[in-house]
Structure formats: C-alpha cells, structure tokens
Amino acid sequence: MTMRTPDSAAGDSFDLGSVEAAVAVAIRAPSIYNTQPWWWDLRSDGLDLRADRSRQLAVVDPDGHSLLISCGASLALAKYGFQAAGWRAAIARLPDPADPDLVARLRPLDRAQPTRADLDRVAAAQRRQSDRRPYKPEPVPEKVIDHLRDSPPGPTSTSSLRWPSPTLIT
Ligand SMILES: Cc1cc2nc3c(=O)[nH]c(=O)nc-3n(C[C@H](O)[C@H](O)[C@H](O)COP(=O)(O)O)c2cc1C
C-alpha cells in the first residue's frame, strides 16, 4: 500500500487521524496474490482510490478483474474505518469515465456515532487473514451450510464460523 503525499493540505472538515485510521483498516483487505494493487490518495476533501496497474498480474489477471475486486475490498474497509472513526462517508464508484483507474472517491460527510457493527467490522478486518489449510474430504455439515445461508448479506463479524469443531460460535 502506498499513500501519496496530498496535493493540497487537508481541509478542516475532517482530521488526518481519521483518514489514517480509515487507511489503516483499508490496507487489511485481501488482494489477489497479496499484490495490494491500490493507491490511496489523500485529497483535500477525502480519499481517492486508484488502481495500481503496475501491480496487475499479466498472466493470471489479464483483464484486471481480480485487481478490481481487491480494490473493492479495500474500499469497503476504508468506509468502515471512517465510520468507526466517527464519520459517515460517501462512496462514488468510477466517478470519472475518462479516468477508469480512479476506482472510487470516498468522502467523509459528517460526524456520526459509530455503530456496534462498524466497530465489529473494523475489529474483524484487523484480525482477518486467509486460511490456507487444506479442505477436508468430507462434505460440509448441514448446520454450517444453514448458518452461511442465513447470515445477513455483506461482511459480518458478530458471528464467526469454526469448522470442523466446534461448529458455530455466535
Ligand atoms: C480477488 C482475489 C482473488 C484471490 N485468489 C486467491 C486464490 O486463487 N488462491 C488463494 O490461495 N488466495 C487467493 N486470494 C487470497 C489472497 O491470496 C490473500 O488475500 C492475500 O495473500 C493476502 O493474505 P491475507 O488475506 O491473509 O491478508 C484472493 C484474494 C482476492 C481479493
């Protein structure tokens, strides 16, 4: 992850500490082959997320699809990071058709008390990691499948899954 020097001083509307907190969460995102193919640019009114094409994998990701998913993961975490730091934030995706590597603009809007979910998500982002252990040969237990089916959409950290044993921890 690279954070560029701002091209202008940060405005009064938000504090640098909140921005740093948001980026610190954003860089915990998973990424294709751990390439971390993003730039987070500090702007006077927030953060811009740019695709770092120098990190795109020519053989396994020729069209940049996985690069974009990786950027999206980082974007989602940055938003939660802002929210956990007490800022409601707005995302504009691909805001400039003439500049497709500008993946998104993230702008803090106003102060807002973080929700329990915001804090949980940020805590989950900070402890998450890929699990590279091999899969077991036996089928996934019904109880686990039910849990996954019933889980709310989007990232959640209020429940975690452990398999094979113990099966579920909520
Ligand atoms: C779009 C995308 C594709 C990925 N593809 C694979 C994959 O094919 N095999 C794999 O083992 N991990 C894959 N990963 C996980 C990354 O390798 C992992 O996030 C990265 O190495 C960083 O490790 P961490 O998740 O523990 O922080 C993928 C992640 C993303 C975002």
Write the layout of secondary structure elements.
Layout: E1 2-4, H1 16-26, E2 38-43, E3 46-51, H2 65-84, E4 87-93, E5 102-111, H3 116-127, H4 142-150, E6 160-161, E7 168-169
Parallel strand pairs: 1-2
Antiparallel strand pairs: 2-3, 3-5, 4-5, 6-7
Helix pairs in contact: 1-2, 2-3
Structure description:
- With 170 residues, this protein is α+β, with helices and mostly antiparallel strands.
- It has two domains: 16-127, NADH Oxidase (3-Layer(aba) Sandwich); 138-170, no CATH class.
- It has helices at residues 16-26, 65-84, 116-127, 142-150; strands at residues 2-4, 38-43, 46-51, 87-93, 102-111, 160-161, 168-169.
- A five-stranded mixed beta sheet has the order 1-2-3-5-4, with helices on one face.
- The chain is globular, with a radius of gyration of 18 Å.
- The two termini are 33 Å apart.
- Bound molecules: flavin mononucleotide (FMN).
- Flavin mononucleotide is lined by residues 30-34, 66, 69-70, 73, 129-130.
| Count of folded domains | 2
Mean pLDDT reading: 86
- CATH class categorisation of the largest domain: Alpha Beta
Order of helical and strand elements: EHEEHEEHHEE
CATH topology of the largest domain: NADH Oxidase
Per CATH, which architecture of the largest domain? 3-Layer(aba) Sandwich
Q: Detail the poorly predicted runs.
A: 1-12, 163-170
Overall, the morphology is: globular
What is bound: which ligands?
flavin mononucleotide
Largest sheet: 5 strands, mixed
- Helix percent reads 25-40%
How far do the termini sit from each other?
Answer: 33 Å
Number of helices: 4
Q: What is the assigned CATH homologous superfamily of the largest domain? A: NADH Oxidase
Radius of gyration: 18 Å
